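User: Working on a comparison across species. This one is DUF2878 domain-containing protein from Pseudohongiella nitratireducens. Can you predict its structure so I can line it up against the others?
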Amino acid sequence: MVKLIVNAMAFNACWFGLVLLGNTAVPFALAWVVIHIALQRESLQELRYMASVVAVGAASDSLLIASGVLTFEGAAFWLPLWMITLWFSFSTTLNHSLAILRRSRLLRTLVAFTGAPSSYLLGSQLGNVELGLGLPATFAVFAVTWFILLEIFSRIPIQNATPPELCPES
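Assistant: Here's the predicted structure for DUF2878 domain-containing protein from Pseudohongiella nitratireducens:
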């Protein structure tokens, strides 16, 4: 349980650092990612899973940029480095502090339609990201996007990376 709390706290520290400080916080967030991987029993499998999450998440945010939903200062078409690092930081949670989302579509839906959009909205208030649509439309786009993302993330195969007490094999 302590490992799960540390995992969640480390991600939140990365989130705030990256949103508030941008690229300045990248080395600290990447240090957490490296430590996280090093502590895994199956480091290579965890890294493969994380890379899949980052690729899908970064592609999704890139589509949001291309469609004008997100605008990052100094990044016309690509995600800034700090945002890609944020995806790496987020990927450390999915087999650990957020592993329960794999088992529960209801929880995935609640997170997708509340937590994820709220994270982007808070990020826009704190950091150097702007939202291109009005609040209701932006919230709806993020909710649908994250519903799809969490469904994809819950279906990416993993082996021996998920704590058995949270996500037993069916």
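For your comparison, note: The mean pLDDT is 85.

User: Helpful, thanks.
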